[in-house]
Amino acid sequence: MSVYDDPGYSELFADIRNADAAFTNFETLIHNYELPGNAFSGGAYQTSPPWITEELKWAGFNLLSVANNHSFDFGLRGLRSTLHALEASRLQYAGAGENLALARTPTYLDTKHGRVALVACASTFTPRSQAGEHRPDLRGRPGISPLRFISTYTVDKNSLDGLRQAIAGSGSGEGRRASISRQRQQ
């Protein structure tokens, strides 16, 4: 980033550098291209050389989220390599760790105007990239802080009957049980 010399580009990064806190989603992994790709990627395999930390500092970023769909593009070794590089460069990050509690732990940045906390999580991620809980009988699994949610729709009886008729009329319910059920009013 630091090699480009465009007035608008330079102005943008000057604004970022002048901020007390500058956050970005760090959607890549840091290693020397020696690690094999994971069986699943977040769409494309994202990697950056170790000197990217100096570019981030040049740009003015001081808070990074590492919880995203590319966090495990190069497996656990890729994630750990990234976290070690960020720690060595003293860049503050959140969203990943050696277990679920650490992945969910905020990072703090002290500025001249106060303390800023960052909590990071991802709602889209590859299989097996989420951190696991640490217990007395089981070591936690390293990974990202996952955010999971379930959408629930409640409809009245007339709407439910209409949905059932639509499914029956489309032929999509043939040979299978329709997955629509009625929630009883209490």
- On the 0 to 100 scale, the average pLDDT is 90
Annotation field: number of helices: 5
Span from first to last CA? 60 Å
Taking pLDDT < 50 over at least 5 consecutive residues as the criterion, the unreliable ranges are 174-186
SS content category: alpha/beta
Order of helices and strands: HEHEHEEHEEEH
Task: State the share of residues found in helices, binned by percent.
Answer: 25-40%
Overall number of structural domains: 2
Supply Rg.
Answer: 23 Å
Strand content: 5-15%
Sheet having the most strands: 3 strands, parallel
Strand order of the largest sheet: 1-2-3
**Anisotropy-based shape:** globular
Number of strands: 7
Describe this structure in words.
- With 186 residues, the protein is of the alpha/beta class.
- It folds into two domains: 7-144, no CATH class; 153-186, no CATH class.
- The protein has five helices and seven strands; from the N terminus they run H-E-H-E-H-E-E-H-E-E-E-H.
- The chain has helices at residues 7-18, 52-59, 75-88, 100-103, 157-170, and strands at 23-25, 63-65, 92-94, 96-97, 107-111, 114-118, 143-144.
- It has a three-stranded parallel beta sheet, with helices on one face.
- The chain is globular and about 60 Å long.
- It starts with 6 loop residues before the first helix and ends in a 16-residue tail after the last helix.
- Mean pLDDT is 90; it is low at 174-186.
